[in-house]
């Protein structure tokens, strides 16, 4: 939609001093359900979505990794990086832009090619797919990134459990394959990680912290676990 079409114009009868929000609303004709209208309105009015388009990132999620990296310095020049749940490729873009040597992304969905990265399509939970990731990396990963999330059901507890299971699978992959000194970053809904696994991570890394980057929507219960210094 063009800027001219989006710009709000006051009604003809409104006084010149009247002021209103520039928030965009979606007509019921443009979306079949209330939930889809709400999602579209949120996208249209999200400043991170607009910034991502202006800055050339594939998704607003790129800013989550940028903010995490600015705070924790998780990305290293010359690193081998496994990006789990890579679609549509925003995190891989950031990793390449910040000097990664090799980036291998995996997702159930197809992902458009990205210069400096290898995009694989498949189920990360399949051991053969994990072997493909390691082969494409050409060595043990220095960094494992996971922004994987299960499709939401609308039931918060169920969504926590399903996304928590993906985070735990990513953690097992990191614990098994990360190079010494390596870094692991994963999405995890609040309260979604198994306590025993969290204890293992704390034993296996020099530092384990949780963070909610500003780009993460305030209403979302997602947080990110940042584990650094694989022992």
Give an overview of the whole structure:
The protein has 231 residues and is α/β, with parallel strands linked by helices. It folds into two domains: 34 residues, no CATH class; 169 residues, Rossmann fold (3-Layer(aba) Sandwich), CATH 3.40.50. The protein has eight helices and seven strands; from the N terminus they run H-H-H-H-E-H-E-E-H-E-H-E-H-E-E. The chain has a seven-stranded mixed sheet with strand order 3-2-1-4-5-7-6, sandwiched between helices. Strand 4, helix 7 and strand 5 form a beta-alpha-beta unit.
What's the layout of helices and strands?
Layout: H1 3-6, H2 34-45, H3 47-55, H4 62-72, E1 80-84, H5 90-97, E2 102-107, E3 117-121, H6 127-137, E4 143-146, H7 156-177, E5 183-189, H8 195-204, E6 205-211, E7 222-230
Give structural attributes:
231 residues, alpha/beta, Rossmann fold, 2 domains, 8 helices, 19% strand, disordered N terminus
Q: Could you give me the name of the CATH homologous superfamily of the largest domain? A: Vaccinia Virus protein VP39
* pLDDT averaged residue by residue: 84
Helix content: 25-40%
- The helix tally amounts to 8
What is the number of domains? 2
CATH topology of the largest domain: Rossmann fold
| Rg of Cα set | 20 Å
Strand content: 15-25%
Major sheet characteristics:
7 strands, mixed
Distance between the termini: 51 Å
Structural class: alpha/beta
Strand segment count: 7
Oligomer: single chain
- From the coordinates shown, what is the CATH architecture of the largest domain? 3-Layer(aba) Sandwich
Outline the low-pLDDT stretches: 1-28
Could you spell the SSE succession in H and E letters? HHHHEHEEHEHEHEE
């Amino acid at each position: 939609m063009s800027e001219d079409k989006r710009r709000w114009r006051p009604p003809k009868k409104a006084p010149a001093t009247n002021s209103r929000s520039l928030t965009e609303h979606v007509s019921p004709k443009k979306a079949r359900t209330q939930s889809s209208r709400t999602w579209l309105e949120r996208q249209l009015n999200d400043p991170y979505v607009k910034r991502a388009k202006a800055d050339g990132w594939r998704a607003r999620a790129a800013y989550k990794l940028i903010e995490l990296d600015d705070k924790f310095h998780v990305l290293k020049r010359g690193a081998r990086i496994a990006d789990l749940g890579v679609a549509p490729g925003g995190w891989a873009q950031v990793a390449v832009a910040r000097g990664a040597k090799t980036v291998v992304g995996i997702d159930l969905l197809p992902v458009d090619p990205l210069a400096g990265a290898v995009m694989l399509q498949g189920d990360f939970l399949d051991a053969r797919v994990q072997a493909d990731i390691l082969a494409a990396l050409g060595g043990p990963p220095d960094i494992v990134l996971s922004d994987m999330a299960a499709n939401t059901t609308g039931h918060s507890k169920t969504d926590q459990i399903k996304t928590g299971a993906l985070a735990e699978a990513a953690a097992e992959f990191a614990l098994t394959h990360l190079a010494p000194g390596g870094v692991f970053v994963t999405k995890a809904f609040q309260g979604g990680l198994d306590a025993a696994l969290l204890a293992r991570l704390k034993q296996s890394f020099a530092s384990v912290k949780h963070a909610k980057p500003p780009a993460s929507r305030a209403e979302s219960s997602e947080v990110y676990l940042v584990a650094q210094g694989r022992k």
